[in-house]
Amino acid sequence: MNPFIDGSQPSLKLWGEEETDGAVYYVYLKKVRYHHATVDYSDQVSHLEWETVRVKMVKAGTLEKLVESLTTDSGELESTYMNIFLSTYRSFSTPDQVLSLLLKRYEQMHEDNMDLSPETKEQLKQTLEKVLLVWFDMYPEDFYEPPQFLTLLKVKEFASKYVPGSLLDVRAKHRFFKYNNNEYEENGSSGFLDATIGKRRYSFRTFNFLDIPEKDFALQLTYVDNELFKRLIPHHCLGSVWSRRDKARGWSVTPSTVTATVNQFNAVSLRVISTILSDLSLKPILRSKIIVKWVNIAQDLRLLKNFSSLKAITAALQSNSVHRLTKTWLSVPRDRIEIFTELAKIFSEENNQTNCRNLLIKEGSAKFVDTLCSNNKQFHKGVDKSSQENTYTMQGTIPYLGTFLTDLTMIDVAIPDYYPNGLINFDKRRKEFEILAQIKLLQSAANNYDIQEDVEFQEWFSSIQVFDEKESYELSCLIEPQESIPNRKHMLDTVKSSVFKWGHQKSDSSSSAGSSNGFFSEKNCSESNVANCIKETNVKASKSYSCLSLSHLSANPMLNGTCNSSQEFYIIKVSLEQNQSDTGGINMYKSIMLNNCDRTRSVITCAMAKYGIDGDPEEYCLAQVLPEGEIVIPDSTNVYYAVNPAPDLKFILRRKHKTDSSRRKKKLLF
Fold it and tell me: From CA 611, how far away is CA 591, in angstroms rounded?
């Protein structure tokens, strides 16, 4: 019995680690069959034998060694490794640095002092050309650096010198011509969304919200979500990229494709809330019809497998300003409440969003919705058969991106970028690539959608006035004053709401005084998730990692700390006090892992590092933001025990001369 054929044992067995100058490798043993060269072909089957070969896999290394590992010792391409490297290298390097090392290695093949055979040198050159071509085709955004396009120019000059007339040479010249003639279409918000807005006319058709067929509404939301998802650049989702905690090192990456998805998510959530609250004169029974309409739209989105807008609608209906409308919810039919409950369960935080993850696995590349869901009689109440049949032909799947951002953020928090010896931790990149590969698979399935855009609808939808969180709550209180709600506590317990925002961006006067610029959701991951992730990866949360950055988060956090005596740390969000004009109206947050031994100065120092601020930490102070005011954390205080864990753990970093009482609503004392 052969264990490598019958599957009783894995074909690869870890033998140990091998350390060389500048790299550490995992060494695996693998059994392979080989034939005797002296045996005739007709007798080969009877003379099959086995041999054990060593297979090396990079665990960690310097940047130069990681680039060298793109090829084997014999000069052949390591295709799997190449895909992982090209997808994740931006976390520890830049396109120019990687390109310089690739070109340097190619030029070394022309030197006589290389201890390699001519055949191996030629193989290495061909392999490096393939790597450059794959990189050039799969990641064109890496070479878009206006106005000079220096990286692209370097490729063009290299190809003209060493491989003239090759496919790489032709592609480089063509792309250089396109970029210089402004023919590059950027992905993300600056591409699709701005192009859509550019279609807007001075006058357009006005829709009555309640008259729009739910299916048509869901299709148009899915159209926008699908276009944005297909344009999403997966590596923009990396925790260390989209948060870009290392601006001090000169790296500048704007994750526009992530931002565009976040903006669309919020656009839907904010308009759900505004359609419910904007008309103060509506009676509860009429207002409940708007909620029922959104539940029906969410039901159609589920059939379309659009989890992004589905999450946006369910989160908006669970928001504080909507779920507190007791009289309105009492007028919503019971069957609609049950359907809404079923839809909300998809994004339950139980067992790290198991429901949502399982659905993505089952339906990611499937033609139809999950069979359990399709057999759920409760779910299909009110959905006519013709609608179901037509919807089932839609074969794509649009995920809730927050699930992937959470996973990538947790990996970024739990696993260090470098080992103590300074080598780049490439094991971490393999874990990140597994998630990026899932996104790419879903993007391939998203091409199966066939939805025509209704420009008039999109114009009308974007014109709906929206309100920020404070304005929405004030409108909600005008509709149903707080003192008139008898069972508000019970309502709060039964209809939970939590908001994950990526900032607060002011909009123009035609919209509202302010709007959210981030995901609305329940807690996507608590510090217990961080602890579990750290436990699984055998990384201890020590003081040296107490200030790991997560991402630009705000408000009710994706990584929210809670007061639990069994936990040794939790996550706080620190914003930098500055003029709104300095940030384009966006209030950005840096999330920091707070250890139970971190004092004020160390937290301030960490926050300054995240924002790339030079100077003396003594010139700054840290204040916790509370609903009723602020608490300034005294110097040399253990911040872990000083914070008030009841509200969201939001803090402001500001210069000390700005901490006078005139800048605070109310000064609180310990």
Answer: 11
pTM of the model: 0.69
The pLDDT score that the predictor gives to residue 587 is 54
Count, residues in the chain: 670
401-411 pLDDT per residue, tens: 988 988 888 88
CB-count burial class (<10 Å; 0-12, 13-18, 19+) for 321: buried
The letter for the amino acid at 540 is K
**What is the bridge-based pairing of β-strands 620-626 and 629-633?**
antiparallel
What is the three-class DSSP state of 650? Answer: strand
Q: How far is it, in rounded angstroms, from Cα 587 to Cα 628?
A: 20
What are residue 590's DSSP bridge partners?
574
Q: Which fold has domain 209-246+254-500+510-516?
A: Son of Sevenless (SoS) protein; Chain S, domain 2 (1.10.840)
How does pLDDT run across 265-293, given as a tens digit for each residue?
999 999 999 999 999 999 999 999 999 99
- CATH number listed for the domain at residues 525-663: 3.10.20.90
pLDDT digits (tens, 9 = 90+) for 560-584: 333 333 456 778 888 888 644 444 4
Q: In this structure, what are the phi and psi dihedrals at residue 351, rounded to the nearest 5 degrees? A: 55, 45
Query: Angle at the Cα of 469 (from 467 to 472), degrees rounded to 5?
Result: 55
Residue 546 pLDDT > 70 = no
CA atoms within 13 A on the CB side of 107: 9
Question: What is the C-alpha separation between 608 and 598, in angstroms, rounded?
Answer: 15
| Structure tokens belonging to residue 649 | 């753990």
State residue 412's pLDDT score. Answer: 87
Q: By CB neighbour count within 10 A (0-12 exposed, 13-18 middle, 19+ buried), where does 385 fall?
A: exposed
Q: What pairs with residue 559 in β-bridges? A: 525
Residue 302 · residue 342 · CB < 8 Å:
no
Q: What is the pLDDT of residues 364-382, one digit of tens each?
A: 666 556 544 544 555 555 5
- Look up residue 192 and give its DSSP letter: I
Distance (Å, whole) CA 118 – CA 513? 69
**Which helix (H) or strand (E) segment is 560 a member of?**
strand 559-560
pLDDT class for 170, splitting at 50, 70, 90?
A: very high
| Helix segments in 611-662, DSSP class H | 639-642
CATH of 63-184, one of 3.40.50.1820, 1.25.40.10, 3.40.50.1100, 1.20.870.10: 1.20.870.10
In this predicted structure, the answer to whether residue 530 has a pLDDT above a threshold of 50 is: no
CB atoms within 10 A of CB 307: 25
Residue 543: C-alpha distances to residues 27, 95, 126, 245 (Å): 32, 32, 47, 18
Peptide bond connecting 147 to the previous residue in cis, omega within 30 degrees of 0: yes
Residues contacting residue 212 through CB under 8 Å, at least 6 positions apart:
457
